Amino acid sequence: MSFDHVIVWLDHAQAHVIHFTPETAANEIIKTHSTHTKSEKTGGGRHENKPYFNDIANALQGALEILIVGPGNEKLAFLKYLLKHQHHLAEQVISLETVDHPTDLQLLAYARKYFVGAARLSRSTPGVSHVL
After folding, report:
1. Residue range 108-122, pLDDT digits in tens
2. What are the counts of helices (DSSP H) followed by strands (DSSP E) for the chain?
3. Which helix or strand (DSSP H or E) is residue 110 part of?
């Protein structure tokens, strides 16, 4: 099955990646390899956890539209990582949203509502929207 849409919720410790269609979904949880805490900083800024971000990026491969959500600044750090290291994926990001700590079912419902509101979920080919 092909999944064009994905939502990723992440914080400094783990990411929940859900690929979905209107009818089905597949999810994956990715945990950080870092021993740094979220308050630790290096080089005057936030520690970029490249292996963690790379694992998340690998889980996003093939997505046509990506919604990145999370409770803090990690979502922005991840987008910056994509812009620097995985530009082809950064181009697929349609929005960053602040979302606290939902369950995976709540996250999926949020994503479906977001994409339906954006008239994107029923899109069969890139650049062509259908009215739901």
Report:
1. 999 999 988 665 555
2. 4, 7
3. helix 104-117
User: Which stretch of DSSP H or E encloses residue 92?
Assistant: none
Which of helix, strand or coil describes residue 54?
A: helix
Name the class of domain 1-32+45-102+121-132.
alpha beta
- Per-residue pLDDT reduced to its tens digit, 70-125: 998 999 999 999 999 999 999 999 999 999 999 999 999 999 999 886 655 554 43
Nearest to 31 by CA among 20, 17, 41: 17
Give the 3-state secondary structure of 7-49: EEEECCCEEEEEEECCCCEEEEEEECCCCCCCCCEECCEECCC
Predicted structure pTM score: 0.79
